[in-house]
């Protein structure tokens, strides 16, 4: 399984708001914002064309966008994943998305993503591969996204969360409504 490292850098100056990025302000296709609860925090958008050459196993579509949100209604230790895929070109730049989510207003800065191939079991932020620090006895499901809040300390993402967040594909890897989140505390 080919894993793809996610490296982030703070967005400055002029940049494409539709680029792959973490936090900040998403650019959504028409109508998607209405499908999300008011307690959804924007985590990441991936322009899938950016990873097509790195996804050798064709685990993800190579056109369109993949969006990651966290429903934070019950706080940082009980979040629910919301993953959306759209082939539609995004048109709505929501400039205050995280600013209106209580206790998560500080995540309004865009961090642009660079992707590169990495070891399947690497720790840190990545797509695909195997969980990098899996501490459970049962075999994990197929990994979609691994989030290590400490991997990019510049972002200040969940500073009190000590551990990893694993987003696993559901039974049908083409149905992103089925994604499951496992929070692994150190």
SSE layout:
Blueprint: E1 3-10, E2 21-22, E3 27-28, E4 40-47, E5 65-71, E6 80-86, E7 92-93, E8 111-118, E9 126-127, E10 143-147, E11 163-168, E12 180-185
Antiparallel strand pairs: 1-8, 1-9, 2-4, 2-8, 3-7, 4-5, 5-6, 9-10, 10-11, 11-12
Would you mind describing this structure in some detail?
- 0% of the residues lie in helices and 34% in strands.
- It is mainly β.
- It has one domain: YwqG-like (Hypothetical protein YwqG fold, Roll), CATH 2.30.320.10.
- It is globular and about 40 Å long.
- The strands form 2 sheets. A 10-stranded antiparallel sheet has the order 6-5-4-2-8-1-9-10-11-12, with no helix packed on it. A two-stranded antiparallel sheet has the order 3-7.
Task: Offer a quick outline of the entry.
By secondary structure, this protein is mainly β. It contains no helices and 12 strands.
Number of helices: 0
Which structural category do the helix and sheet elements fall into?
mainly beta
Please provide the ordered H/E string of secondary-structure elements. Answer: EEEEEEEEEEEE
Per CATH, what is the topology? Hypothetical protein YwqG fold
CATH architecture classification name: Roll
Helix content: under 10%
Q: Provide the number of structural domains.
A: 1
What does the radius of gyration come to? 15 Å
Give the C-level CATH assignment: Mainly Beta
Number of strands: 12
CATH superfamily: YwqG-like
Distance between the terminal alpha carbons, to the nearest Å? 26 Å
**Residue windows where pLDDT falls under 50 for at least 5 positions:** none
Largest sheet: 10 strands, antiparallel
